[in-house]
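My main concern about presentation is that the manuscript never shows what a single data entry looks like. In essence, backbone conformation is discretised, so a fold becomes a row of integers matching the chain in length. An entry of this sort, consisting of the sequence and the corresponding backbone structure tokens, reads as follows:
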Amino acid sequence: LLAASAASWNTADLRRQASADVERMFAHAWSSYRSAAFPQDELLPLSCQGVNNYAGYALTAIDSLDSLVVFGNYTEFFAVSDYVCRNVSFDIDRNVSVFETNIRILGGLVSAALIMQDRRFELGGTAAVTPRRVDLAR
């Protein structure tokens, strides 16, 4: 059964469908977070309320930066990166989760900075990649 399932994923149509499904699910999750919880850390799925469980760093927004580029939503990528540059400060004396900070915040900021410097990504031309945005992960 597993071999048959794995073999069926080798068709191009199924891969395209799976890719479209993932993109649609991300778009739904992002738009829900953006409209109901941004810039708070997370969206509570049942109440559709935003909550700051991780010091109010806009955790989900930072964590989503690379996914926004992967799915081609450059407008949101630049809007969130600008928000983070202008409004998020890590100069807070607060106990934080080292795991969440490393994988979601540091990972999101480093990947965003690398994406902005990588010419393989078409980010609306060089005018869109400002020094302030490149400084995002420093």
Q: What stands out?
A: The mean pLDDT is 83. The longest strand covers residues 42-44. The radius of gyration is 17 Å.
